[in-house]
């Protein structure tokens, strides 16, 4: 499962936002998930956040409820404006090998 979120961050919140993202990435890594963030070239403060894992990573995941992740997410929501489709989930599709194998 992959989730993608576009965030826009004001200049004055940039350092705090990036610090919170670092905390979230470390936390998610401890839960077997991967996290990446990219900033749009030529558009400071416009970010894409990617989270990847074997499951949705929500409150019902195999590791149980995640109050730390929820707190970090709430902090980020106070620092950034997110697009409406932030919670959309993308499932991996297994492709056939070349030659139909």
Could you characterize what this model shows?
The chain has 101 residues and is of the alpha+beta class. The protein has a single domain, classed as Alpha-Beta Plaits. Helices cover 30% and strands 26% of the residues. It has 2 helices and 5 strands. The chain has helices at 14-30, 67-79, and strands at residues 2-9, 34-39, 46-52, 80-82, 89-90. Strands 1, 2, 3, 4 and 5 form a 5-stranded antiparallel beta sheet that branches. A hairpin with a 6-residue loop joins strand 2 (34-39) and strand 3. The protein is globular, with a radius of gyration of 15 Å.
Alpha-beta classification? alpha+beta
Helix content: 25-40%
Which regions have little confidence, pLDDT < 50, spanning 5+ residues? none
Number of helices: 2
SS elements, strand count? 5
Envelope shape: globular
Would you kindly provide a brief summary of this structure?
The chain has a single domain (2-92), classed as Alpha-Beta Plaits (2-Layer Sandwich). Helices cover 30% and strands 26% of the residues.
Q: What labels would you give this structure?
A:
single chain; 30% helix; 5-stranded antiparallel beta sheet; alpha+beta; 101 residues; Alpha-Beta Plaits; 2 helices
Task: Give the topology.
Layout: E1 2-9, H1 14-30, E2 34-39, E3 46-52, H2 67-79, E4 80-82, E5 89-90
Antiparallel strand pairs: 1-3, 1-4, 1-5, 2-3
Helix pairs in contact: 1-2
């Amino acid at each position: 499962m992959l989730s993608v979120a576009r965030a826009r961050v004001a200049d004055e919140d940039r350092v705090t936002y990036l610090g919170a993202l670092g905390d979230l990435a470390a936390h998610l890594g401890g839960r077997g998930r991967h996290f990446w963030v990219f900033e749009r070239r030529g558009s400071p403060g416009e970010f894409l956040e990617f989270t990847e894992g074997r499951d949705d990573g929500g409150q019902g995941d195999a590791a149980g409820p995640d109050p730390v992740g929820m707190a970090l997410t709430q902090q980020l929501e106070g620092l950034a404006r997110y697009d409406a489709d932030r919670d959309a989930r993308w499932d991996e599709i297994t492709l056939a090998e070349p030659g139909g194998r």
